[in-house]
Amino acid sequence: MLTMGSLPVLTFICVVCAVWSLGHGQQVGYGYRLVSVDQGSDGSLIGSLELIQQTNTYGPDIPHLRLYVKHETEDRVRVHITDAQTKRWEVPQELLSREQAPADLPVSSRKAKPAKSAFEFSKFAGGELIVSFISNPFGFAIKRKSNGDVLFNSSYGNLVFKDQYLEVTTGLPATASLYGLGENTQPNGIKILPKEAYTLYTTDISAINLNTDLYGSHPFYMDVRNGGISHGVLLLNSNGMDVFYTGNALTYKVIGGVLDFYFFAGTSPLDVVQQYTALIGRPVAQPYWAFGFHQCRWGYKNVSDITNVVENYNKSQIPLDVIWNDDDHMDGAKDFTLDPINYPEYKLRPFLDRIHANGMRYVVLIDPGIAINTSYGTFQRGMADDVFIKHGGSPFLGQVWPGAVYFPDFLNPKTVNFWADEISHFHQMVPVDGLWIDMNEISNFCSGKCSIPTNRSCPGTGFPWECCLDRTNITATRWDVPPYKINASGTQVPLGFKTIATSSVHYNGVLEYDAHSLYGLSQAIATHKALQNLLDKRPFVLTRSTFVGSGSYAAHWTGDNKATWEDLRYSISTILNFGMFGMPMVGADICGFYPDTTEELCGRWIQLGAFYPFSRDHSNLASKRQELYLWDSVAKSARKALGLGYRLLPYLYTLNYDAHTTGAPIARPLFFSFPQDPETYAVSKQFLLGPGVLISPVLYNKTTSVNAYFPKGSWYNLNDMTMAVKSSGQYVTLQAPMDTINVHVCEGMILPMQRGGMTTTVARMTPFTLIIAFPLGFQSTGGKAKGHLFLDSGEDVDMKIAEGKSTYVDFSAESDGKKVRLVSQVESGSYGLSQGWVVEKLMILGLSKSHLSSQIAFQLDGKPFTSSSFTYSVQPLSTSAEQSQGGGAIMELNGLALPVGRNIDLSWTL
Ligand SMILES: *[C@@H]1O[C@H](CO)[C@@H](O)[C@H](O)[C@H]1NC(C)=O
Ligand SMILES: *[C@@H]1O[C@H](CO)[C@@H](O)[C@H](O)[C@H]1NC(C)=O
Ligand SMILES: *[C@@H]1O[C@H](CO)[C@@H](O)[C@H](O)[C@H]1NC(C)=O
Ligand SMILES: *[C@@H]1O[C@H](CO)[C@@H](O)[C@H](O)[C@H]1NC(C)=O
Ligand SMILES: *[C@@H]1O[C@H](CO)[C@@H](O)[C@H](O)[C@H]1NC(C)=O
Ligand SMILES: *[C@@H]1O[C@H](CO)[C@@H](O)[C@H](O)[C@H]1NC(C)=O
Ligand SMILES: *[C@@H]1O[C@H](CO)[C@@H](O)[C@H](O)[C@H]1NC(C)=O
Ligand SMILES: *[C@@H]1O[C@H](CO)[C@@H](O)[C@H](O)[C@H]1NC(C)=O
Fold first, then answer.
1. What is the pLDDT of residue 391?
2. I want to staple 183 with a disulfide (CB 3.0 to 4.6 A). Which of 214, 535, 706, 759 is the partner?
3. Is residue 109 pLDDT above 70, yes or no?
4. Ligand 3 in contact with 760 (CB < 6 A)?
């Protein structure tokens, strides 16, 4: 319990002049003093801060601040600082529900204890984080109880708190490895590097732009320190911000809102993401089919065009689950319409009936901008319901693909209903299986306040993305031109550049200035809700713009990338970052969005892309076509990589379950499984799927080998399980012929696989194989492996263990070198039994060569096991380039029919 009387009072430390200047000798702020502290009724601590000295740089300082600190859980502490007198903007509870910091408590009128100097408090006896303060100038620090490590210390700079400028700096040890702070394309890999700018402000800038603010805003970072001890830090704030990292300090410069820090204690990287998603919401459950392959293109001219694409995939025997339309199906790029010539309903419907009958799905794009057209129903209803974002009392005018548009305001509950009704109308005409919400940063082809030209048509004859509205000047209120310029678009453009004016107003008077980066989140919530209510199935929504918490509603792709080898490489860091942001369903446009791809690049890209959690080929209107069947070599790579990917579907789908229930990313950096190995901290050209499937792609042209890092242990090649790497924690050169990507499974894993198929619908009903990976050539040291499996219909709204609806199985195997035993423990088995799923095959990897000639006796549930179809074989592991020191063997048990829904206890002597 918090007992103020017994707080250890540390020696008074005067932080002499941590003076932070602008480099022009201009002082931004002098900081605050902590004048009193008191205990809140909720077990929190509430402090009063008083300004030390006023400056006018970036506006006047706010004189009185309220500090609120609460240990919300054993491993999470919140430090919230706001104006003590006036309510300020915070991320709305409707978008991100969380414990509320109390409304202004009359701290000063209560008998608050004057803050003497510095002290510490910790509410929970078992809590791992300790908050301490220095009172003059005020600073707070977060310390880890178990090892005393200081995780965050704001005394490295003066706290600055003005209406439109907040600044806080923490010191960091030079050895810390930082990750996160996106969305950002990081050319130098996944680690946050000193001197690279991190600006967070949602913007329609393509992913080819390096180190600039892109489509999403995620003010979260993970800090991995010596020995892999990790923690996370979220600054929950939706205003634009610059974050600067120098290598030994990190400074936030934020243009509004409040300082609302959450610290997550870890201590493993996985713990950090679990704790982070416990706050912001667990990742949404994705339908089974979403893990199949998706084909899209901007420029599918008509229904026969997409019909041919689907047929060609089938003819080429390349798996395909989902066919997409960008905006080609629309009438004049208007949402919820069909082009009457090229995509008439009477042609599209039979096509959809056919693909649905073949177990495939269809997804289309919608943009937020609603075309201004009095004969367009969606527009009429939107006007009638008054759903649009306003400026000066009337809807804010912008221009996107259909021409002049208004933007729905998803902060308005009426808009959420309007949106659901439009989706429902559309669905009656076009039974889509999911929706793709694009351009929701919001993207606008014009800037500032405009009007519809009266003397010419708009769009006119120019490119559709050229502004054709009459421009008045960019609006110039303090919301449009704040005193501090964040590095928007990497060039300090005005906040309203190519988006809506930040002086625009949402429901309830909320300023676009504050809510700008929340637009994509608010639209994803509305779209997710609409689809779920309509279909009574698990919705699939793909969104471009994201914020903290978007992963609870939608998947993400990395946006417009380039068909280059560099972009192929960059995709990995962005995907891994989104896993840490609680948005694990993510991928990049396979083969590149534009310009023309090349055969070799596309072949290597599908090899990698087959293992993106979200695997979609997408290209631009002006690029050459890039469907995977167009080149024989690419088709061959696709069959091989997607073939393996489709056999791994039960593993991937179980990772979807793990993500949904614990937050664990699907694609993970290597350090998630090997946090004690510092060599893994910067690995950005390989990644793990789940805890132990290592993807080592070729990322350079004219290359047929890959120098891959293998953390300590035995790794088995999933393309040829007789090949293994026994690593002491080292780089190994692997052969990577043009049609092959290296995929390895780590010792200790039991990997559930199936036979695969041309669609996930077919693949998910096939018999199972279990890959049991023991350490290579183990003898008396023994071997252990484990894994688990979640099975359900693949599209129930709820994804959870429920009798008759789903089945969960824990597998474990062990061997002492003389005997092997595999045990499964089934929870809620009836669903698995009703579907007739069986394990047909076991592959036991890593047995010793001495097992080769053994006479083997099998026992099932303690009784001798015989079956007419059952066979087994043992073969040596290859001693090729992927050398197996000491040799080893692989044992295959085939022709089994062990029901997945029933406990298995199979053992045999070697
Ligand atoms: C935080 O930094 C200040 C200034 O460097 C230092 O005096 C103080 O001891 C630090 N606090 C902790 C908990 O390390
Ligand atoms: C569909 O579009 C393609 C490509 O532009 C064209 O060749 C074909 O004639 C069109 N088919 C129909 C039925 O309109
Ligand atoms: C592929 O084509 C075959 C033969 O026409 C057909 O039976 C099968 O249903 C098709 N599969 C898919 C997924 O379209
Ligand atoms: C308005 O919408 C109608 C119906 O969708 C369409 O035919 C017409 O071309 C549109 N008008 C303009 C100016 O885009
Ligand atoms: C149309 O009107 C605008 C604003 O009055 C003017 O700037 C522009 O030159 C006019 N364009 C034409 C083609 O007359
Ligand atoms: C636009 O800006 C220019 C130069 O800043 C100014 O002269 C002009 O009056 C402004 N026009 C409007 C309509 O505000
Ligand atoms: C803004 O970002 C760009 C792109 O990373 C960078 O080159 C530039 O130095 C940054 N400018 C400032 C003022 O931080
Ligand atoms: C392949 O790489 C070489 C250099 O390694 C470069 O000169 C060449 O342009 C690249 N070709 C393509 C198509 O990227």
1. 96
2. 214
3. no
4. no
